[in-house]
Every structure is written in C-alpha cells, then in structure tokens.
Amino acid sequence: MSTRIEADLLIPGRGAPVRDGVVVIDGPVIAYAGPRDGSPIGAPAVAPVRARTVMPGMWDCHTHVKGGRPGTFDSAQLVQEHPATRAARGVQGLRRALDAGVTSVRELGGMGLHLAPVVAEGYLPGPAIYAAGAILSATGGHGDIHSLPSEWVHDCARMGTGFRLADGEAECAKAVREQLRRNARIIKVCASGGVLSVIDDPIHQELTVRELRTVVEVAGLAGRSVAAHCHGKPGIMAALEAGALTIEHGSYLDDEACTAMSEAGAILVPTLTIVRELLDDGGLPPYAARKLAGIAQVHRSNVARAHQAGVRIAMGTDIQSSGDAPAAWGRHGREAVLLNDIGMDALDVIEAATANGPATLGLQAPRSGLLHPGFDADIITVDGDPLRDLSLLADPSRITAVWQAGILVKG
C-alpha cells in the first residue's frame, strides 16, 4: 500500500528545498519526492498525509547504548551489571530516538550489537543500528577501565562488553576480527585519550600509526570503515594517515588537520551535545571535569574552523545515558542547534543530520538519508519550518510523524 505525504516544504537532505512538495512511499522505499506538479496522479488507498515540512529521518552517527543507571559515566560501574540488565535498560532510549526523528544510528561501543538484530527483526521499536561492538584501545588508553586491574578488563572483553584492549599490530588485527565475527558494521578505535577515562590525556596519541593502519586494513578487508576517537592533533593526524574514515570529536583540529581531512575525504562527527550537556550539568568527577573544561572552548572553535574549511560534517551526539540524565537518549536534535550556533546554516545542518550520515559507514552505507526515488522510506514530518528554526528538531513533540522503511512508527 502506498502513502502520499503532501507538505508545504520538502527538504530532500541534500540540495535545494521544494515548496509545495510531495513524497510517495511504495512499500519500504520512496517512489517519488519532488514538487506537487509532476507527482503521481493516481489516488492513494488512504487519504494523503498533510504536513508543514517533510524531510529524511535523521542519523545520529555517534551513540552508545550503555544502559547504565541514569547519570552513570563510570565504566567500572557499568561492567558490574549483567549485559542483559543494561540492554533492557537501554531499550527505552531506542524508542525515544524514534520519537525524536532519528531513524538510524551508529552505535560506537555498547549494547548495540546485541540489540541491532532485535530491532531489525521487528521485535523492538528503534532506529536501525549500525554497531561497532567493542571499543578498541591501547592498554591504559581511553577504552581501558583504569580503576580495575587490567586482567579484569580483559575478562570484561571476553564476556562481550564494550571494551577491548589491543597492543601491537597482531593484537589489533585479532581485536578487529573479533568484532567482525560479531557482525560489527563499523570498527571504533581510540587514537587519542579522552575525557571520561581516568588517567589518560585527551591530547596524547595512544596507538601508533602502524597499529592504526592494521585496524584500518583488517576492517577494510571486510568492507568496514573505521571511526577514530580523536581529541588531540597527534591522534587525528595518525588516524588520517592510517586511513580512518571518520574523526570523532576532533577537539584540537587546526588548519593543517582540516586540510588533511579534506584531502583524505574524511568526515568529522563533532559531538557538541555531550560536551555542552556535561558542562551544564557539572556532575562529573574532578578528573573528568578538569579535562572537559580544557577542551570545551577549543572544541567548539575548531568545529567551526573545520566547517569553514569545507570539512564534511555528520551529526553525532555521543548520547549514552538512560532516563533524563545529561546526554540521554531522545536529545539528539540538540546537536542540530549547536551546529547552527557554530556557524553552519540550517540547510548544511540538515544535510549533516541526514544525507551525510550513511557516508560514515563507507562501503556499508545503506540507501538512506535522502528523499530520492529508490531510497529507504525513512522519513519524518515536522510541525514548522526547520530552515527558519532548527530548535524544532530538538523538540520531539514537533516531530509529528516518523516512517521507518515505509512503516509508520510515530504519528
């Protein structure tokens, strides 16, 4: 059965918006998207859907289904609960993502690999999940749990939790193959230190170029791309030299790094939301609060620098909390507002939130993120004009309907 959506404004995801637009859904794909004049004339089986704005479903390209207790950012606490408990707690967030207009996510370390097939089978409402499995990290790096004995962290990895330590090229290759065996759709690696890990420094590079190149090479054999967590410039440059497709965070990007990203065709996933929400909350332990204060302003400035330099940006939030805690699932649209605040115009922001999302998966990219014939019918309608007011995308109550693969899941 076909569905016809008639909207005052059609935003295709990339390219010029269309006033008085029509989208026709035929099963799981889009059959037509364009101006009313020229749209199919045949009457649909049901009355057309009327909307202020129709656009592609949004992508959040940096999420974590951690399923910890609300407000928990300490990985040592997370691994003390059974994965089934945490997966069950994370389910609510997937529903919230759909209600917020997010129809696809990259899940870069958490319960995503366990939940992705359940969503795909239709047993669980949620966005399509493209999961990385465990985060790959050097011993003592951002993906380590510094407050636990290293043997325990290795035990956690063997139990299938979201952390995998790998040192040296052979161990990096094995770690990637372990994630591929679990059907990871992307590989996540820590090329620099981070904020929420205890003893490392966000500026420091944590894997060698040779180790990173091994990760990229083995992932590439299976058609998978690599997402590199990077704050400091040394890690950014090493990840780019190794061939990583996406740079996550990019706090210390400078002009040289932006040029390298553009030349490599790499994509920046800025995650402004996690920084802003943790700053606003102020509830971090002292070690993390100090590191966050150190990167907050430079991160914002350098995301703006990257945009001005023409680096391609995809929307990602680092959403990871349950309930109503900071950085909780359902707040994805705040990233659109923050990207607008650093100088991206509304059309560029929407492209980052839609059309650019699938590209972060490289060869694994689905036909999604665009209102084009033949593309997946992942579509949302909005009560208002987001080109005039991007805060509409941050308010789930203004997302009036959501279709996923042609099926109405909200509205």
In terms of topology, how is this protein built?
Layout: E1 2-10, E2 18-26, E3 29-35, E4 49-56, E5 58-63, H1 75-78, H2 83-99, E6 102-107, H3 112-120, E7 128-131, E8 135-137, H4 150-158, E9 163-165, H5 169-181, E10 187-190, H6 209-221, E11 226-230, H7 233-242, E12 246-249, H8 255-264, E13 267-269, H9 272-281, H10 286-308, E14 312-313, H11 334-341, H12 346-353, E15 379-382, E16 399-404, E17 407-410
Parallel strand pairs: 1-4, 5-6, 6-7, 8-9, 10-11, 11-12, 12-13, 13-14
Antiparallel strand pairs: 1-2, 2-3, 4-15, 15-16, 16-17
Helix pairs in contact: 5-6, 6-7, 7-8, 9-10, 11-12
The largest sheet is:
7 strands, mixed
Assign a percent range to the helix content: 25-40%
Radius of gyration: 20 Å
Strand content: 15-25%
Name the average pLDDT: 94
Overall 3D form = globular
Return the string of H and E elements. Answer: EEEEEHHEHEEHEHEHEHEHEHHEHHEEE
Number of strands: 17
Count of helical segments?
Answer: 12
Strand order of the largest sheet: 3-2-1-4-15-16-17
Distance between the termini: 17 Å
